[in-house]
Amino acid sequence: MLILAFESSCDETSVAIAAFEDGRARLLANQTATQIAIHALYGGVVPEIAGRAHTEAISQLTYAAFEEAGVKESEIDAVAVTNRPGLIGALLVGLSYAKAFAFAHRLPLVAVDHIKGHIAAAYYEYPALQAPFTALVASGGHTSLVEMKTPTEAVTLGRTMDDAIGEAFDKAARVLGIPYPGGAELDRLAGRGNPAAMRFPSAALPDSLNFSFSGLKTAVINEVNTRRQKGEAVIREDVAASLTAAVVRAVVTTLEKCYRQKPFSSFVLAGGVAANSHLRRAVAAFAEEHGVTLCLPSLPFCSDNAAMIAAQGYYEYKAGHLADLSLNAYPTARNKE
Ligand code: KG4
Ligand code: ZN
Questions:
Q1: How far is the CA of 128 from the centre of ligand 2 (A)?
Q2: Where are the alpha helices (DSSP H) in 264-335?
Q3: How far is the CA of 94 from the centre of ligand 2 (A)?
Q4: Average model confidence (pLDDT) for the chain?
Q5: pTM of the entire structure?
Q6: Closest C-alpha to ligand 1, atom 11
Q7: What sign results for the dihedral spanned by CA atoms 320, 325, 329, 330?
Q8: Which secondary-structure segment (H or E) carries 69?
């Protein structure tokens, strides 16, 4: 079957078309327009601007997706769309567009949770992946340790109590004068710095599988500002390496704890921060030590995209989770419908 999918929860507008046969996912088109350059002016995503930019981009991306896939509109079997969590004004653009398409072509509509979508991105490159498995979604807006009990049933084992993991990277980058979003640049700088130069607090909370990245973020900003006030040099590479070491420590400590509580045989590292080379290496070492099959989606599948929404949409469709045209958007993953 062919699924047309839309993603517009934050600052990427994306439209994908994917084919699913016997549980195998094949991506036919994935057209994404990023708004990063627009939001970089403000040091973060401005919700109203995001919504407007999605509105401008979505039709062209849809035409481009059909052209890339080489399929006709009449060949689509279902429409999948992210309806939570995300910026409401941003989500509503994709949601309204998806509804209009489904209505016009009399197609089933499927609502997809963005977090589950990030995890489902792994199905394209790891066709053997099968629930149950455990996943960490690490992005600019989310940090969730999730057990996928079935392809559609997600149980949150742990999450951040405050800032997302990517927020810590982006705000640390900002104080170092690196444009938004600075995660990827910090990744590069960290490779040339001393991870022991500064000791930052742990972001892994004791007695649970939860995280707190707010304290770590503030500690980095304070450290940089204090050094500047004292007239001391701030070596960006060392800040990046020390922050990265703290983040990696928190993730690996939490994975070890999670594994001790309930061992898992497959693990997916998902979301924009899953692109971090140091985190990828550390999680790969963890997986190897425990004989866990590791699924590390390639970089284009880590950041926001509609391919992942198509993949999760397929499983929601198969499970009979169909939405109607009254479907709404929600800012968090936990709101009741
Ligand atoms: O998943 P994503 O594209 O959007 C959200 O759903 O948030 O994630 C974006 C986040 C940003 O915080 C960005 O700085 C971070 O992913 N990021 C990285 C790297 N590449 C992107 N963080 C650390 N290292 C990277 N290589
Ligand atoms: Zn995301």
A1: 23
A2: 277-290, 299-302, 307-318
A3: 14
A4: 96
A5: 0.95
A6: 140
A7: negative
A8: helix 47-69
Tens-place pLDDT, residues 244-287: 999 999 999 999 999 999 999 999 999 999 999 999 999 999 99
Residue 303 CB–ligand 1 contact under 6 Å: yes
User: The domain 130-300 belongs to what CATH superfamily?
Assistant: ATPase, nucleotide binding domain (3.30.420.40)
Chain centroid to CA 39: how far? 18
Ligand 1 in reach of 170 Cβ (< 6 A): yes
Atom of ligand 1 nearest to the CA of 86: 6
| pLDDT at 336 > cutoff 60 | no
Q: What is the pLDDT of residues 220-252, one digit of tens each?
A: 999 999 999 999 999 999 999 999 999 999 999
Does 2-121+305-336 match 130-300 in CATH topology?
yes
Top-level class of domain 2-121+305-336: alpha beta
Which among 303, 304, 308, 332 is the best mutation to test ligand 1's pocket, defined by most ligand atoms within 8 Å of the CB? 303
Strand, coil or helix: 17: strand
Q: Where are the domains of the chain?
A: 2-121+305-336, 130-300
